[in-house]
């Protein structure tokens, strides 16, 4: 028996993930009599939050390896100086240390070689002598490498536009669905959620919490075939004139061959519901996994034909350079990046904005 969560319920006031502590806000503190309430502090804008979220990766890219890798930037006692410190000359030692820093940030061997070669050419061509000049050159080279991955998702090409989400356990698929639903709703589009993760305990309840919060319908089943749940959801979306269907799937490792076969079946069944669907196959990657994320892109793309990526949890990682590795080794459009749990902490990927947060 399929379950339906009806739209139109009032969303909770909290901006936390509904999967965290029930998604409810803490009660307000009472003010002393006669004392005016303090105005809430303005929330930083996306650029500021992105810069804060990428701090660990930024520090990794600015460290010298002249001493102990991982020591604080500018620590004189450990003879550690920032790679791009003013007054430091551009020499072979600098290039070697920069190469090590890029690899430590999970930029990958191939992308690191491309970037270092670019910097050497730029230094010769423009007669650069100071390391601080090389930082701008590196930012330009990184932006150029990432630029081809910046392709915004257009959900207006089909109705319903079916988005299938995949990924390993814990990458953040269900939370990503909730945030995408909020984004599409804010754009004035109708949304339906399909609870295709019938394996993980509480996955359906988590998705229903997001559905209630966003005022959208969730189609689910207590247990059973995920392909059948998603098929039914698409049929319901067609009948109701829904704009976007977001289909959740259970997390799985690429090495679990029977589960990879299952998700291939889910995709085939979606194609039977609507010819040409799913119109987008989004792979959700945990930014903390570094080079393993690149392996996931290759494996899921081989199985499903991935059309876009969502990179989450970049705020908890010093491995944000993996985006450059993906651009070099297996380029797939990066639709969104996430740097927090608030509902607006998932935003479209903008290479120059991303690189600016890494190097400024």
Number of strands: 9
CATH class of the largest domain: Alpha Beta
Per DSSP, the total helix count is: 12
**Proportion of β residues?**
5-15%
What is the averaged pLDDT score? Answer: 84
Instruction: Going across the biggest sheet, name each strand in turn.
Output: 1-4-3-5-2-6-7-8-9
Q: In CATH terms, what is the architecture of the largest domain?
A: 3-Layer(aba) Sandwich
Largest sheet: 9 strands, mixed
* CATH fold node name of the largest domain: Rossmann fold
The residue fraction in helices comes out at 40-55%
Order of helices and strands: EHHHHHEHEHEHEHEHEHEEH
Rounded to the nearest angstrom, the distance between the terminal CA atoms is 54 Å
Describe the 3D structure.
The chain has 360 residues and is of the alpha/beta class. It has two domains: 46-149, SRP54, nucleotide-binding domain (Four Helix Bundle (Hemerythrin (Met), subunit A)); 161-359, 3-Layer(aba) Sandwich (Rossmann fold), CATH 3.40.50.300. It has twelve helices and nine strands. The chain has a nine-stranded mixed β-sheet, with helices on both faces. The chain is elongated.
Compact summary:
The protein has 360 residues and is α/β, with parallel strands linked by helices.
